[in-house]
Batch of 2 targets.
Target 1
Amino acid sequence: MTGTETAVVLGTAGAEPGPLARALGASSRVHPERTDRCAIVALDLSGEPGDEEYELLGELADLATPTALVMTRVDRYPDWPGTAARLRDAVDPGRRLAVFAVSSTGGGVDDLADWCATADTDASVPVRPPTPVTRLGPAVRPAPLASGPSRADRLTGLRAGVAAARTDALTAARESLQSLAVRADRVCSGLRPADVDAYIGWVTGAVAAVETTIDARLADRLDKVRSVASAGLPDEAAVDVRPVPAVVSAPAPPERRPSAEDAVVLLFGVSAGFGAGRVLVAPMVQWAGLGWAGAVLTAATGLAVAAWIVGVRRTAATRTALRKWTSDIVVLRRTALEHRLIARIGLTEAGVGRAPWNRRRPNL
C-alpha cells in the first residue's frame, strides 16, 4: 500500500479537496481518523481561514497525525506567494507543518505524493492553540459559534442565488417595459388630440407600476437568498440594503405649438378644400341656377374639406410626437431601473457575504 493511499485530504469545499484527493489517489473526508497515516489540509487562497480550518488542525493535533498544508489553485492568484505566507502565519505560527502549492493543472502533486510516502511523524504534527487565559470580571455570555453550512458553501450558494436573481430581475424589467411600449404604440394608433392628457397619465402610471412590481419581485428573491446564505449567522447578515432610487429627469410631454409647418399645412388645406368645393358643388350650382347662393355653398364646402385636412394632419403629428415621447420615457426609465436593481443586488451581496468571512476564532 502506497503512502498516498493511507493519506486523507481535508478542507472546505472552496479549497476543492476532492479533486486533490483524486489526483493523489488518496481519500477525502470531513474529519480525520486515527488510522490515517498522514493528513493534507487544503487551504483556499480566496479568503482568510475560518473555524473549519482551525477545528481540523485541532483534531489532527489531538490525533498526532503528520500534516501538510496545501495551497490549492495557486495559478489563479498572481500574488499567491504572499497570500500563502499570510495563511500559514495564521494557521501555523510555529511553522511546524510542511507547506506545498498545487496548481489547477496538477503542478506540485508529485512533490506532495513524495511527502506522503515519507511523512515524518514528529516534525510535521500541528499543535492545538492553547486556551486563552481570561481575567475574572463581569460575566459576559460568549456569542455562539455559527452553525449550518460551511463558509465556502454559503458563499457559493450566495453567488448562485444572486446571479439567478439578477437575471430574473433584469429580464422581467426588459420584458415588462417592452410589452408596455408595444401596447402604447397600439393605443396611439387610435388616439385623438383630446385624449393626450389621459394617455400621458396612463403611460406614466404604467411605468411606475412596472418599477414597483420589479422592485418587490427582486426583494422577495433577495430575501430568500439571504435567508439561506445567513442561516445560523448573527442578525446583522439579515439587514436589507436598499440603495436610494436614482432621480431620472423624464422627457416633458409633447406640446403642440403653432409653427411655420402648421401655416403651410393650413394653406395647402384651404387651397385643396376650395378646389374640391368647386369641383363638387359647381356643377350642381349651374344645373340648379342658384346664383350667389351657390357661391356660398361652394365656400362652405371648401372650408369643411380644409378643416378636415388640417385636423387629420394635426392628429397624425400628435400621434407621432406621443410615440417618440413614449419611446424616450421607456428607454430612460428602463435604464434607470436596471442600474438601481444592479446596485441593490451588489450591495446586498456584499452585505450578506461579509458575515461568513467574519466567522473567525476570537483568539486568533
Target 2
Amino acid sequence: MKPGRSRLVAAVVLATTVAFVAAPAPQPVDAAWQDAESGAVAFAALSIAKPVYLAGASGCSISTTSVLGVGLVINSYTLTFTMPEGYGSADIQVGGGNTSTTIALASAAVTPAATSPTPNPTRQYSVTFNRGLLDGLLTGLLGGTGYLGVRVAPSSLIVPPLTRDTIWTSPWAVVQVGTALLGTNPTCTVIG
C-alpha cells in the first residue's frame, strides 16, 4: 500500500471510531402499538357448569320388561339432573356415543324433550331415551356398553350465524349404560 493511502485509511478508521464513541447511546422507545397513557383490560372466558345427576338410582333409571319370565329387556333410560343456576329446558342438549369421550349431539329428529315439574324452583329435568332412540344413538348396545349425556348449550348465545352445535357448551354429564347379551340385565351408572 502506498504511504498516502495508509494514512487515509487510518484517518477514516479513527474518525469512525470517534463518531461511534461520541454518539449518544440509544434510548428506550415505546413500541408502535404501545402508548404510555393506555389502560389495561381484563377478561375471562365463559365457563359453563355441566348438569348434575341426582344421587343414586334417581339420576339414571331404567324401564324394563320381562320376556317369557327370562331376563329383562330395556324399554328406556331416564336421566334426571339439575341444571346450573340461570339455565332451563331450552338450554339442554342430549347425545350418545360408544365412549365417554366421543358423545355426539343427537339430531333434532331424535332428541327427546326435557320434562320438568311446573313450577321448577329446583331446576330438575328428566330426559327419557326410548329403546328406538338408543338403537339410533348407540352402536352395539346389545351385549355391550354405551354412553348417554346431557350438557348445557345456552340458547341466549345463539345469534346467527351460530347454531346450537357451534356455541360454547358445558362439558357432557355422562352415564354409562350397558346390557348383557340380547339386552338382558341392563345397567345405568353415572360416571361424570
